[in-house]
Amino acid sequence: MKHLLTILFLFSSVLTLFGQPKQPGRLSKADEVFLDSLQRDTFRFFWDTANPENGLVPDRAPTRSFCSIASVGFGLTSYLIGAERGYITRQQAADRTVRTLRFFAKAPQSDTATGVAGYKGFFYHFLDMKTGERFKQVELSTIDTALLLGGILSAQSYFDHNTPVEKEIRQLAEQIYGRADWAWFQASRPFVSMGWHPEKGFIKSNWTGYNEGMLLYILALASPTHPVGSDVWAAWTKSYPWADFYGQKHVNFDPLFGHQYSHCWIDFRGIRDDYMRGKGIDYFENSRRATYANRAYCLANPGKWEDYSATIWGLTACDGPKDTTANGRNFFSYRARGAASTGIVDDGTIAPTAAGGSMAFAPEICIPALRAMKARYGSKLYGQYGFRDAFNPTYRYRSAFANGSTQSGWFDMDYLGIDQGPILIMAENLRTGFVWNLMRKNPHIRRGLQKAGFTGGWLN
Description:
The protein is of the alpha+beta class. The chain is built from 16 helices and 21 strands.
């Protein structure tokens, strides 16, 4: 045993010498103060902007928009954090949650193109904020429904008191989750399709490769009513792109959100499926490496974009200036930005949620980045709901409108729910492990992980 420990110590020392990132340590008092204000401000996005009657959360604010069902999922979990941190009372959180779940339980579902919120237990990507009906001709979305269910199941586990409202929350959560017909969505077995339109049927693209679909498959495997077969997980992992990118060997996916979303609700530390057992790491470590690789790419800055540095970095899906070419450079509006062996999309636009959603993996590089962004750009980037969605110091332009001119780069005016959610949730997981510990208790999450072949750690 003594010889084994010596070998392990020497091995870890060699890794450190060759640039392997250090493991996270305790947060400083200044970091805690920063996170206190960041979480409180970010929480208010969900609490203030949601429709209190039906619980629907907008895709973005302050620009008026439709509801994003994924934002609702993040919002439901944010209410639990708000109750634990004293931003609101448990009763306030329960009242908002039960109204939200009542809407999704009762919202009309059918294969018609209008006047409905979903079909086969799934919901349309975007809904009208007031009526809750399908917005235009958006798809019936499997991944956005999965993110909604992540929030719903967190509420099911949290509200465990024997009161009428909390019992109703648990019952509604079970009803909504059990109604989703995952097997119907396997148009190309064993994979699940990305979506469906009543006008033209299933989307041809399936959930393959590696991305945020990990949560989707765990929920699909765990379904007590319409599960997919266990063969799907082996097929899913078989399509993984394992590669070395900027010195980090990991399963690659270019936008960082794909390494973050599933981890908001599931604690992957110390549990492994067959694939990760073969690689000798877990998915938490994989996301940590992806975060370091993203930062290393930005630090190298092959595109020579303004302000990129060790503390100004972070590529993921986010808003952008506009789809245009200026001074010989291409810029984009909303786009899945990122950097990995699977692809590079980089127009100089940085999203705070890239570092924010990775706080739990690598606080030693993510918190300094967030603090530096707030200190450097001030109110142009940080407002009443925390960080605005994105900024681009390279994109400079003049406009006849006062709020459309800048000689110091472009700064978004909006906050996006799907980007605010990971900041708030992963900050809490870093600090207390609250959401992770909560979801460890959920029988559906445990069952899905076990069906996928996960063992070890807290699952034992």
